[in-house]
Amino acid sequence: MSLPFAARRAALSRLTGAPVLLVNNGERSRNLPMNRLPFRSDSSFLYFTGCTQPCAAAIIEEGACTLFLEAPAPDDALWHGSQPSLAEQAAAVGAERVASLEDLEAACKKHANLLSLSVPDPEMTALASRLSGQALAYPGKNPDKLVDAIIQLRRRRDDWDVAEQRKAAVVTTKAHLAAMRATRVGGHERQLAALFDGVIAAEGATCGYQSIVTVRGEVLHNHHYIHPLQAGDLLLLDGGAEVASGYSSDVTRTWPVNGRFDLRQRAMYALCLEAQKWGIEQVRPGTRYRDIHFGCMKIIASGLRSEGLLRCDAEEAVETGAVGLFFPHGVGHLLGLDVHDLENFGDRPAYAPGRKRPTQFGARYLRMDLDLEPGIVLTIEPGIYFVPAILHDPTLRAEHLERVDFEKAESFLGFGGIRIEDDVLVTEAAPEVLTAAIPKEIDALEAVIGAGLSAEERFFA
Questions:
Q1: Half-sphere exposure at residue 106, Cβ-oriented, CA atoms within 13 angstroms
Q2: Helical H segments across 81-224, by residue range
Q3: In this structure, are residues 208 and 240 in contact, taking their beta carbons and an 8 Å threshold?
């Protein structure tokens, strides 16, 4: 399959009708100048150029690309080995021309109405702003015409993109299975986190975001890895691989540390899984994503009523937001070169014109409200959580006193949280679950948990 970058640049020129200056991130020091943080290219720069060189820049005009690269230092080969020439680097990604980064300013002066884009690196954003004459700021200040063109192109996957996301899903599957097989009572979150991340690294990939590996799953973004694994705990693992192209996977699974769901865990897990499978089935052209969110909420509300946690019916629980006390986040998001794809442009890529985020607690964290189209990749990830800070919030308790059995909810404190998440491609027909190979059915999970060497044995045997 041929590289897609030239076609993307041609489409960008058609949509903008103007020359475009794109800059990449630079390298950042961790503590000493020579001790640097892991480098990641800006996603839009990567999308249109395929270039992963720090501080690179590109001018795209009428589809043609001039790539501007830093020339290596005289002693670079001593420390880093022989590197490809500038011309070889440009040829590898299909750029039509290459020049030294020193020539960038002079080249920009030859272009009127130059559009440019901010990046996470403030120094490179300042450079782009100065050379283009535009006031740029990351993440929110960029020219509308360029942002709209990038959103239109990046939001829908072509065959090359989908193939890359499938690669990420394969690596992510291996890492999740390794963590499941190594789970043991007496183990530790940090061991499973190291194993999960290590499998991804061993496959030549990196983590698309910091992995969440925790028995305190009610803390939605829990990165601390401080808890031992005890009988009765549920382990929540939210992690995904990013392959060399930059495309990422994002998957969550939840399973019992001792290998068997108890009755309460089984009931809550089965309810979350029912909602997730229903939500995936709705991923079809023309479906409004917000409807998937509220449909999943309704299923969870109905189950929570059956368990005695909600006193009202499912319709009222969704309408009033009472179910949000147990499902306090959106059902998913766009996924691509960023794990929350295009979110540096705010809600603009993920909310259709005229649509705004709900204001209700829980639902206000819904990251997307689009009518789905073939080529979009997204996540479906409902959850059920028992969060002390939510259940003890005096405003929420007063608002939902008649709808929530808070005494019963209190009995679940310490339960943790359950989230089940898959990556789904919208096709012309049925949805394609890119991460379907990762077990999530109760029987399949129980068959694999603890079925291999423990993390400690893998590290130290």
A1: 5
A2: 86-92, 104-108, 122-132, 144-154, 159-182, 189-202
A3: yes
Residue 63: exposed, middle, or buried by beta-carbon count in 10 A (0-12, 13-18, 19+)? middle
Spatial separation of the C-alpha atoms in residues 408 and 456, rounded to whole Å: 38
Cβ contact 289:277 at 8 Å = no
Helix (H) or strand (E) holding 254: strand 251-256
Sequence-ordered list of residues with C-beta below 8 angstroms from that of 301, at least 6 positions apart, any chain: 310, 313, 314, 317, 318, 322, 323
417-452 exposure pattern, b = at least 16 Cβ within 10 A, e = fewer: bbbbbbbbbbeeeebbbbbeebbbebeebbebbbeb
Q: CA dist 383 to 331, 420, 460, Å?
A: 8, 7, 35
Question: Which tokens go with 376?
Answer: 């979009």
- Single pTM value for the model: 0.95
Superfamily of chain region 5-154:
Creatinase/prolidase N-terminal domain (3.40.350.10)
27 CB-side CA count, 13 A: 14
- Give the 3-state secondary structure of residue 404: strand
Crossing angle between the packed helical segments 263-281 and 289-306, to the nearest 10 degrees: 160
Q: Could you tell me if 334 and 295 are in contact, meaning their C-beta atoms sit under 8 angstroms apart? A: no
Q: Spell out the alpha helix ranges (H) of 218-262.
A: none
| Collapsed DSSP state (helix, strand, coil) of residue 251 | strand
- Running DSSP on this structure, what letter comes out for residue 233? P
Q: What are 205's two structure tokens? A: 């990939």
CATH 3.90.230.10 fits 159-460, yes or no: yes
Per-residue model confidence as pLDDT tens for the chain (461 residues): 688 999 999 999 999 999 999 999 999 989 988 888 999 999 999 999 999 999 999 999 998 999 999 887 777 766 777 778 888 888 888 888 999 999 999 999 998 889 999 999 999 999 999 999 999 999 888 999 999 999 999 999 999 999 999 999 999 999 999 999 999 999 999 999 999 999 999 999 999 999 999 999 999 888 999 999 999 999 999 999 999 999 999 999 999 999 999 999 999 999 999 999 999 999 999 999 999 999 999 999 999 999 999 999 999 999 999 999 999 999 999 999 999 999 999 999 999 999 999 999 989 999 999 999 999 999 999 999 999 999 999 999 999 999 999 999 999 999 999 999 999 999 999 999 999 999 999 999 999 999 999 988 888 87
Q: Which of 429, 161, 173, 404 is nearest to 287 (CA)?
A: 429
Where are the chain's structural domains? 5-154, 159-460
Strands 422-425, 432-433: pairing kind: antiparallel
Structure tokens at 44: 């839009």
